Amino acid sequence: MLERELTISNRLGLHARATAKLVQTLAPFRCGCTLAAKGREVNAKSIMGVMLLAAGQGTSVLVRMDGDDEMEAMQAVVELFERRFDEDG
C-alpha cells in the first residue's frame, strides 16, 4: 500500500470537472484508490464519492493506493495534482 498527502492547488478545488479528470485518470488502473479529507474517506474512482469530499483549494488529501499497479497510479495522480487538474491557465 502507498500513501501520499497532496494539497489541492487549483482555484476551484475538486469541482465536477476536476473530479471527472481524476476518475478518468484512475480508470485504467486495477489497484484500489481512496482519498481521505475532512474526516471522510471515499473511493477515488467514484465521481459521487469524490464530490462528497467538497474539497476546495488548499485542502490536504491523503491518497491511498493498494494493488498491482499502485506505483503507476500514484504517479499519475501526483502529476495530475501538480498540473492543477489542467486548469488555472
Automatic annotation (TrEMBL):
The record's listing under Pfam families reads: PTS-HPr (PF00381)
Subcellular location(s) per record: Cytoplasm
Q: Which part of the chain is the HPr domain?
A: 1-88
Top-level taxon in the UniProt lineage? Bacteria
Q: What is its main location?
A: cytoplasm
**PANTHER family linked to this entry:** PHOSPHOCARRIER PROTEIN HPR, PHOSPHOCARRIER PROTEIN NPR
One Gene Ontology BP term is: phosphoenolpyruvate-dependent sugar phosphotransferase system
Q: What is this protein called?
A: Phosphocarrier protein HPr
Can you name the source organism? Answer: Pseudoxanthomonas dokdonensis
What is stated as this protein's family in its record? Belongs to the HPr family.
| Alphabetically ordered keywords of this record | Cytoplasm, Phosphotransferase system
* One CC-aspect GO term: cytoplasm
